[in-house]
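[job 0412] stage=complex_fold ligand=calcium ion status=START
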Amino acid sequence: MKSSLSLLLLAVLVWSCGSGGGDASMNLDATDSVEATSTTSVQGLIQKGPMLQGGTIQAFPLDLALNQGEEVAQALLADDLGSYELPLAEGGPVLLQARGVWFNELTGALSGTPVTLGAVVALEDGANAVNINALTQVCTARTVELARGGMTLAAANVQALDELLAQLGIFTPNTHTALAPQALDLALADPVDHALLAGFSAVLLQAAQHRGGAVDSKVQELLGLLTQDFADGTLDPALVQELAEANEVVDTALFRKRLSTWYAEVPDGPGYQCADPDRVLDADLDGRANASDNCPGDPNPAQTDTDTDTIGDICDSCPITACSGFCLAADGAGRPQDLCHLPCQAGTCPEDQTCLQSEALCGALASCCVPDGEPGGACHDDQTCDEGKSCSPDDPSCPAPLNSCCK
Ligand SMILES: [Ca+2]
Ligand SMILES: [Ca+2]
Ligand SMILES: [Ca+2]
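[job 0412] stage=complex_fold status=DONE, emitting structure tokens
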């Protein structure tokens, strides 16, 4: 039984076939004799994250009008990295379709249900390398449309991905790639183009989680909607908005950690590097990729950083005071100037400072050194306090463990 996605793509292909045309560069001739000694094959990686051993890969030839024919080859995945190899009688345009259980890079769990992913490519006689992933899937219908307009399938794949990057609204503006989606690999760090697949995968998973319910079926649902919607080269603003909202909150560090762990633990996995989504994703859409944005959660295209502490003014609690610990901003009242609290070193602090555990004084630091006499710090007598303040010993409202501070 065909999957719903297969039927969807088939429907798109059939719907559009009346436009005729075809691509002269695609020489699939149904009358070609199949050479028994053909060494044509296609191999690659199936990644939504990595598809597991036991998944299937099928090849469906496309005719001159790029309509889908009957399956001509099928193989099983041999490992948990998504690797496949599929022998074929000859080259030509095909829909490659993978289906199987996959590793979710955001939850760290295996999917409960299989996902179906496709790629529309023109295979050469001989050996071919084709990766199949979320981006090849979303580009399938668009690639067919472009090829029907006269492009080669190879050029159509590159253009479809380039168009999609501009449409998605999750990457930095003017992000381009000269690579086709089937050249991308989640397991490679360089070139940066691979990060496009990692970024899209991460945001897609987050958006699927936001939809609620079983995340596996929501991933498939979103892939189907995006594929269908992108056939004409433009995406529904509601879908773009949905992805943008997922992009704002997706935990890319967790995505990388899960994926690295997977590659480190499965057989033959060690040695893989993982593409970094933050090299291309732009969570606040200010034109700076997360990895090179000094305030990734707030739009600050100018990247102004007055105190040059690498934290942009817009999200720096003390924008004019460089502080390598936790900075309490001046409040114009009890705290006339910025206060910088450095982490305690092995539980100790310089003389006249006290190591305290206080979220109010130390922020995200587990503990920090607070100078005696400073608001919130320990005091011994009124002389250690600023003018106008007096020492309040044994005061429960002062930070533990000293419960002594100037007020
Ligand atoms: Ca940014
Ligand atoms: Ca920013
Ligand atoms: Ca700063």
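Residues 282-284, 286, 288, 290, 293, 296 surround calcium ion (ligand 1) (CB under 6 Å).
[job 0412] exit 0
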